[in-house]
Amino acid sequence: MIPAQDAVAAPQETAAPQQTLSGYSRRLYLPTFLVAAAAAGLAWRGWQELSEFGPLRAIHAEQAELAGPAVISFVLAVFVIEQIRPAERHRVLARGHVLDLIYLLSYALIVVPITALIGNGFSGALLHAAPWMVLPRTSAVPHWLIVAAAVVAIDAMDWLAHLGNHKLNSLWRLHAVHHSQEELSILTTFRAHPLVHVSFLVSSLPVLALIANDATPAAVLTVYACLGALPHANVRWTYGRAGLLFISPAYHRIHHSATGRLDINLGTVLTAWDAATRRAVFPARGAEAVVTGLTGRPVPVEQTAGRARFGRVFLTQWVEPFTRWTNTVPPDGPARAVTVTADPLHQE
Ligand SMILES: [Zn+2]
Ligand SMILES: [Zn+2]
Fold first, then answer.
1. Is the residue at 104 inside a domain?
2. What single DSSP character describes residue 13?
3. Which bound ligand lies closest to the C-alpha atom of 264?
4. Separation of CA 162 and ligand 1 centre (Å)
C-alpha cells in the first residue's frame, strides 16, 4: 500500500513545454494506425474463423453475454442507486452521463461485435500457432475450482493490460478517453476507445488455456462484467473489510483522480495485483470523493463550456488518438481550469 500523497504525475504526452494551448497539429500518430491495422487483420481472421459457425450468431452470443439484458439491467439499477446517494452530486442528464450513455449504446451495437471478431481472430491465430497451450480436460480437479482459477487468471491479465495502458504511450492515448470523464458514473465503464480492447486480448489466454474444461461459461463472464462495472459507480462504497480484497467504487475512483498518480489501483475485481506490486491505495472510510478527469483536458470533453455537442465530442474522442498530441497543459494545473477547444475534426 502506498499513501496517496506520494502520488506523482501520470504518463501523458504533455512533457515538452510549450507556451500556448494551440490545439492538435495536423501530424498523425502512427502507433494508433498500427493498432488499428492489427485489429482489422484480427477481425478479418475472426470472421473467417467463424464462417462455419456463423459470424453473426457468434456476435449475438457475445452481445448477450457482455451487453445483454442482465448487464444492462444491472447498470441501470446501479445508476438509480447513484442518484439517491451519490459520491458526487450530478444532474441525471449531466453531460457526462449523456455521453457515456452514447458510449454504452456504441459498446452494445458496435464495439462488442468488433471485439468478438477480433477476439476470435486472436484465438484462432494463437491456437494455430501454439495448440499446446490448451490444457487437457481433467476430472481430478473440481469444476468450480477450475472456473475460479480461470476468473482469477482473467483478472490478473486484465490488470496487466491496464498497467500496459498506463505505461506505454501508444496505449495510453487509447485509454485516456476513459480517464477523461469528469462526472464518473457506472456508465463510464463503457467510455472506452474501441481499439483499447486490443490490449485486453491477453485476458483471453486463460480462457483458451482452459477451453477444454469449459472454465468460462457465459454466465460467469456476465457476472464478471457486472463486477468489473460496479467500481465505476458514483457512490462512496468502500466494501469495508471486503474492500481489502475486492475493488470498491471508492477504490477505483482514486484511479480516476484528476490529480496525482494514475498508475495505481489498476485492478478490475481483485486488489491482489495492486497490493502485490505496491500500487494499492485504499480509500479512507467517509473520505471526500476525489475530483475525476484529466488535468488540462488533453482529450476533448463534453463539459467544455458552450453548447453540448455530444456527437462531435464522441467522434472526436474516437479520432483524436490518431493525431499527435501537441497541445500542452500546465503539469500541475487543476483539471478543469484549462479549456482546450481544438479538436482533430475541426482544425484551424
Ligand atoms: Zn486506467
Ligand atoms: Zn475506470
1. yes
2. S
3. 1
4. 6
List of E strands, the chain: none
The verdict on residue 168 lying in a domain is yes
**Do 213 and 118 touch, CB atoms closer than 8 A?**
no
End-to-end CA gap in the chain: 46
- Kindly report, residue by residue over 238-280, the tens digit of the pLDDT: 999 999 999 999 999 999 999 888 899 999 999 999 999 999 9
Whether 193 maps to a domain, the answer reads: yes
CA-only gyration radius of the chain, Å: 20
Domain count of the fold of the chain: 1
**Chain Cα centroid distance, residue 57:** 26
Asked whether residue 347 is domain-assigned, the answer is no
Structural domain harbouring 38: 20-322
pLDDT tens-place string over residues 79-88: 999 999 999 9
Closest CA to 329 of 25, 23, 32, 102: 23
Pairwise CA distance, residues 301 & 99, whole Å? 9
Task: Give 291-338 pLDDT, tens digit per residue.
Answer: 999 988 899 898 987 888 899 999 999 999 999 876 544 333 333 333
- pTM here is 0.84
Task: Please tell me the distance between residue 263's alpha carbon and the centre of ligand 2 in angstroms.
Answer: 12
Contacts made by residues 27-30, CB under 8 angstroms, sequence distance 24+: 27/323, 27/324, 27/326, 28/322, 28/323, 28/324, 29/173, 29/321, 29/322, 29/323, 29/324, 29/325
Instruction: Identify which ligand lies nearest to the alpha carbon of 11.
Output: 1
Q: Which amino acid, 51?
A: S
| Identity of the residue numbered 58 | A
- The three cell numbers locating residue 284: 479512507
Could you report the per-residue pLDDT of 68-127, keeping only the tens digit for each?
899 999 999 999 999 999 999 999 999 999 999 999 999 999 999 999 999 999 999 999
Distance 163 CA to ligand 1 centre (A): 8
Q: How many CB atoms lie within 10 A of CB 122?
A: 24
Distance 179 CA to ligand 2 centre (A): 7
| Residue 230 and residue 186 in contact, taking contact as beta carbons nearer than 8 Å | yes
Q: Give residue 27 CA to ligand 1 midpoint distance, Å.
A: 26
* Res 9: pLDDT: 39
